Amino acid sequence: MSDPASPASSRNPWSWIPTLYLAQGLPYVVVMTLSVVLYKNLEVSNTEIALYTSWLYLPWVIKPLWSPLVELLGTKRRWIVVMQFFVGAALACVALTLPTERFFQMTLAVFWLMAFASASHDIAADGFYLLALKTHQQAAFVGVRSTFYRVANIGGQGGLVYLAGELQERTGSMVQAWAGVFWVMAAGFGALALLHWMVLPRPPQDQPVIAQVAPWRGFLSVFADYFRKPGILVILGFLLLYRFPEAQLLKLAVPFLLDKPELGGLGLSTKEVGIAYGTVGLTALTLGGLLGGWIISRVGLDRALWPLVLVMHLPNVVFVGLALEQPVNLGLVAAALAIEQFGYGLGFTAYLMFMIVVAEGPHKTAHYAICTGFMALGMMLPGMWSGWLQAQIGYPWFFTWVMVATVPSLVMTSLIRIPPGFGRREADQPDAPAQGATSANKGDVRQKEERRS
User: Fold this and answer.
1) What are the C-alpha distances in Å from 283 to residues 51, 77, 146, 152, 250?
2) From CA 161, how far away is CA 171, in angstroms rounded?
3) Domain ranges, ordered by start, for the chain
4) How many other CB atoms are found less than 10 A from the CB of residue 414?
5) Is residue 452 over pLDDT 70?
6) Is the pTM of this model over 0.85?
7) Is there a contact between 276 and 337 (Cβ–Cβ < 8 Å)?
8) pLDDT tens-digit readout, 349-395
9) Class of domain 13-201+216-423
10) Is 73 helix (H, G, I), strand (E, B) or coil?
11) Cα separation, 404 vs 218, whole angstroms
């Protein structure tokens, strides 16, 4: 595929970051969330839903294994566009396989392929973000990227779930309704791919990395450099456990909302879930993400970390209240979900910025991908058992357990170290040399300054 002739080498970040992270968020929400609603509507059990859809995290877990290839083969811009076209084709394949007798196995296989394409797209998009923006811009736009990633979630969990409910009421067939939704998504994603082919900038740094040694040695050295980072065990523990409670809650939130009251759920319709959880809740999450990015850009991650961590975990208690009271008022349910999601949006920006801290160095793209791989593993493993656990103890005790599960996250937060002022915009920084995530990063900064002089 040839790129359009002579596009601008740089563009205003607002012209491409929102749509890029819409395109990054949509396939993820399809694979990890819409699939849950889809299978619940088609009467698959909670245990099977949680187990098999958690396995779909695996491509994001192992994506660091091929992340160096994104640096070695082609530009990240080209990877982004090609993977977006592939995801569009996969969405069309889901629409084609839904009406078949073995829809569960076939759609899972397509979701698996879509997940690999989406994970590859994530590597390229995150690397492109790091190359095309300066550090203070990265901090300022971390809330924006998180916001539009969540807008994709709103469109997926809100608008598309509502559309599925509407089509089901009109056609009388849940299968036809969801097939129509996936055809709409396939067309929309193809349009996004064409848009990015035309508008993405071409930063000079976006070039294949030329290995100074044999390719396989360069491949291994990228991983070796990551695992030689000071405090790597604490870093890994934080990446795996920060979202430990949320990993379990997310898998059962939608089944809880859809399950009938006699089963412990709230008995909402598919359309009501699209409104309360997919629209109101995710709008609150989006606003939380914007506010979190703004706070970090003003005071730095080091000062913002603990407030953001606490405001992320404490609102999970609303699910305990919902499970005990089982309210029937949709407005009350939506308000409770908005509180929980707003806190989650705030806290997740701290996690994103910490991964940028860890990725600092000569292999930003690959090291950031490794961070996200551990993040996905931290979501995959707890999610796998969450459906079984809920089936054993019921929703009230399950959500109580989610609150107890915040303890490992808080412990790991107390152990990590953040460079003073990291992420704070330059205008608010004291006059001091730039600082990185580790002493090794600080050495890199000093060497760069010496070369400039």
Assistant:
1) 28, 29, 12, 11, 16
2) 15
3) 13-201+216-423
4) 10
5) no
6) no
7) yes
8) 899 899 989 988 777 777 887 888 898 889 888 988 888 999 999 99
9) mainly alpha
10) coil
11) 43
